[in-house]
């Protein structure tokens, strides 16, 4: 039977985190749409975009995991960046208009000294070619019109910067930094301090929070995995419907993967039922006392994730609830 091209895909409630190894070329939005379709997810989002020229870790959040997207945006991130000295770019990267070349007389020692000077807290001015908004429009829209908008500096922290390779005029560096850091701007700063200019020629996000390259799944692997686990009965279905969804689901990290470093508190069955109904809980002396003023992951007695709460002055206040495991709700109070 030939596949029906007009058959509408049936979406489903699926929950979890997938750390996709985005290739160079497609936008983050395009990759997000591809993963959403592959899993037939009703709801999907991401925890921090990458430019089309960049590759690496793109957190795709499905279902209830989208409620914790901000944790991905706020997390420290690691990058491997290629920088070329001797020229500047109007976009800060290889996709822009390049200036006339300048001589590069740097030594490895002078490069490492400049990198060391880039460590620590600092104020960074976001580039014009960025998606930050001004009066409802992204800055890159003004930049393409030849206009420059005054931008306020933002506080960032470069926790680590290491020279991995030096082959003048090209260098490769590893950077671990806080949220909001533009590696393109960092490349420009390095070139400026070396007195010859510089721009970004390649970028790969290698980590987010505690996750590393080993935790990523590439798109080709997802396609191959899905095809390998397709059943013969699915052979006549459309490409999207031939996915073995349970097999794909096993690749997902838990809903709370991006906040796994937060403190957690396990509740009794009755407390869990109250929590899932949005009720505040008074923390008794019999309960472990959560950190004052912090957000806390809440689990039930069976270690199922129920959501997050805020603890203050002895009161646990529900902030975000999840329903990704219906049995966690329906079974409460039955024991």
Biggest β-sheet strands, sense, barrel: 9 strands, mixed
Instruction: Report the count of strand segments.
Output: 16
Q: What's the structural domain tally?
A: 3
Low-pLDDT stretches:
231-242, 326-335
What's the mean pLDDT score?
87
Query: β content, as a range?
Result: 25-35%
Shape: globular
CATH class division of the largest domain: Alpha Beta
What does this structure look like?
With 335 residues, this protein is of the alpha+beta class. It has three domains: 16-74 and 212-249, Pseudouridine synthase (2-Layer Sandwich); 77-208, Pseudouridine synthase (2-Layer Sandwich), CATH 3.30.2350; 262-330, PUA domain (Archaeosine Trna-guanine Transglycosylase, Chain: A, domain 4, Roll). It is built from nine helices and 16 strands. Strands 1, 2, 3, 4, 5, 8, 9, 10 and 11 form a nine-stranded mixed sheet that branches. It has a five-stranded mixed sheet with strand order 12-14-15-16-13. Strand 6 and strand 7 (137-138) form a beta hairpin. The longest helix has 11 residues, at 28-38. The chain is globular. Mean pLDDT is 87; it is low at 231-242 and 326-335.
């Amino acid at each position: 039977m030939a596949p029906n091209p007009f058959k509408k895909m049936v979406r489903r409630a699926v929950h979890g985190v997938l750390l996709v190894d985005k290739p160079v070329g497609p936008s983050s939005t395009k990759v997000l749409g591809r993963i959403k379709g592959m899993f037939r997810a009703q709801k999907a989002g991401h925890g921090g975009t990458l430019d089309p020229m960049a590759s690496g870790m793109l957190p795709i959040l499905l279902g209830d995991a989208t409620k914790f997207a901000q944790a991905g945006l706020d997390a420290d991130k690691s990058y491997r960046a290629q920088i070329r000295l001797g020229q500047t770019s109007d976009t800060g990267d290889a996709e822009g208009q390049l200036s006339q070349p300048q001589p590069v007389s740097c030594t490895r020692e002078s490069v490492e000294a400049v990198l060391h000077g880039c460590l620590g807290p600092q104020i960074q001015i976001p580039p014009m070619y960025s998606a930050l908004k001004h009066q409802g429009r992204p800055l890159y829209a003004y930049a393409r019109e030849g206009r420059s908008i005054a931008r306020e500096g933002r506080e960032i922290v470069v926790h680590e910067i290491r020279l991995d390779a030096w082959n003048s005029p090209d260098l490769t560096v590893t950077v671990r930094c806080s949220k909001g850091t533009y590696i393109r701007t960092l490349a420009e700063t390095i070139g400026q301090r070396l007195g010859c200019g510089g721009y970004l020629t390649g970028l790969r996000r290698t980590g987010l929070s505690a996750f590393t390259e080993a935790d990523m799944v590439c798109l080709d692997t997802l396609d191959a995995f899905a095809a390998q686990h397709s059943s013969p009965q699915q052979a006549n279905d459309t490409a999207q419907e031939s996915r073995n969804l349970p097999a794909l689901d096993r690749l997902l990290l838990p809903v709370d993967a991006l906040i796994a470093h937060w403190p957690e508190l396990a509740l009794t069955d009755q407390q869990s039922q109250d929590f899932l109904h949005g009720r505040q809980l008074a923390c008794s002396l019999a309960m472990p006392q959560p950190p004052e003023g912090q957000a806390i992951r809440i689990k039930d007695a069976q270690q199922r994730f129920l959501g997050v709460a805020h603890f203050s002055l002895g009161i646990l206040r529900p902030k975000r609830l999840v329903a990704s495991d219906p049995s966690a709700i329906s079974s409460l109070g039955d024991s």
